[in-house]
Amino acid sequence: AGGSVSTGNGAAGRGAAVHLDNAVHASTRRALTLIQEARGGAGGASDSGAAGAAGSAESFLDVVDSQASSLYIAAHAYGGNGGNSQSGTAAVGATGSARITGSSTGSVQLEMDARGGAGGGVGQGSGQAGGQADASITFASAAGITMGAYVSSIGGAGGGSWSGQGAGGGKASLNAQLTAASDIDLAFSAL
């Protein structure tokens, strides 16, 4: 998280962005579990200066497997929260983006969770918008293999204000393209 400023008009520190692209990988002929999670840093709070910007989060996994008897793949991405401010300028929430692509010859369970960070709030002035959430999944399984997927995309909450105007929440987008010759069990939510 970015450093905060408790008194004066100094600018607060920004949260770090996190980008994970196939950071986890393994192979086996038995059950295989791959979980990858990215969390962006929160922006620091300010007094009368600018609050710290939030860090974005990206978690991308591309898995092509022809060995494992079963696969469980999860990609999570959580955008950082924008910094709050007492009487200065708050910061918008950061984007959270998660993506899974690939194929498998074994049974497959897929999980994805993308969340935008909350917008910063203020004591005086206007709150800032929540961050966008983007979730995308494209996966194919072999004939006769069952596939299950849970996909969630939640935009960040807008920042509030004690004596001004609150902000809107972030947009949520979701895309799922699953191909299988057997049963597909798909559950999704976008908020």
Description of the structure:
The chain has 191 residues and is an all-beta fold. The chain has no helices and 10 strands.
Q: Biggest sheet, strands in spatial order?
A: 1-3-5-7-9
Q: Show unreliable segments.
A: none
Strand content: 35-45%
Q: Please count the helical segments.
A: 0
Note the overall shape.
Answer: elongated
Percent helix, as a range, is under 10%
Which structural class do you get from the secondary structure elements?
Answer: mainly beta
Query: Order of SSEs, N→C?
Result: EEEEEEEEEE
Largest sheet: 5 strands, parallel
Mean pLDDT: 91
Number of strands: 10
Q: What oligomeric state is this?
A: single chain
Distance between the termini: 25 Å
Radius of gyration: 20 Å
Which terms would index this structure?
elongated, 191 residues, 0% helix, five-stranded parallel sheet, mainly beta, 10 strands
